[in-house]
Fold this protein.
Amino acid sequence: MTFALFDAPSAEPSQFVGFAGNQIDRQSENRADDCVEKALADPRTRLMLLGDGRICLKLDGGTFDPWYGLAESEAFKPRLGEAVLLGFDASGPILAASAGIGADDLPATVKAIDYRSVYMQGLIDPAALGALAQGAALLAWNASHRFCSKCGHASETRAGGYRRHCPSCGADHFPRTDPVAIMLTATREKCLLGRSPHFAPGSYSALAGFIEPGETIENAVRRETMEEAGIRLGRVVYHASQPWPFPYSLMIGCFGEPLNEDIQPDLGELEDCRWFFRDEVRQMLAREHPGGLITPAKGAIAHTLIRAWVENGI
């Protein structure tokens, strides 16, 4: 085995996927329990307003602005008692909070846009998109973990949303990230792509599935590919990862080497699964396929995997 660290590019592939551009200093190890209260007292604090899988974006000429001053945010009735501290940048503290008004009640100058559309359309810069992934994941985790999993008592938010404490039994709970393996099975000539019923018309993507307890990333890639497509894999290599705020996952992208070619798709999971040759996939990436078939949009880790294989022969 060779040691590839010093042969790796200075900018790893994960830097070029959606939701990966977060530049906030999280100060995770230096958070007091009253850090949100201190941030709310700081006039420099900026707020990101989220809710129901959407972010409130201000229309500023031809661009969108995701940031609100504290006074400016009052019109949206933010739930500041449940706000989370994302961290700090050169301008001061940064919080994320749920908006207290619905999309129908927003002024004409503000649009509530779903996270997926925000990243697919490039509506905000990469740093803000990364902050969105952090804020959405933390708010979702706190909302779904209001009660202690040890004794069932209501828990309390601590450390700016990075810990929940149970006053009854004393247990502490910390935000979770669900690891998901996403893999492109490929030879030098062709790759395996599938489509689920909920995909956009004509869209094909890499296969994916949650990593299970006690399982390595590589074995999860092998298991999921076998379960979904009946393809056995030999070598598996890691390529890139992506924060995925739906609700708090980490997509771990890999390539897998097939040991057989006869596909046996799990039609309970997939609508279709097939081999695609490189030239056809290149047409799909360029949105020039004669049959209207496409790959996931730029920014998705599946797109990164597919493009790397098409362009570099990985």
Notes: The mean pLDDT is 95. The helical segments are 35-40, 70-73, 115-120, 126-144, 217-229, 278-285, 301-312. The CA atoms of residues 186 and 204 lie 15 Å apart. DSSP finds seven helices and 16 strands in the chain.
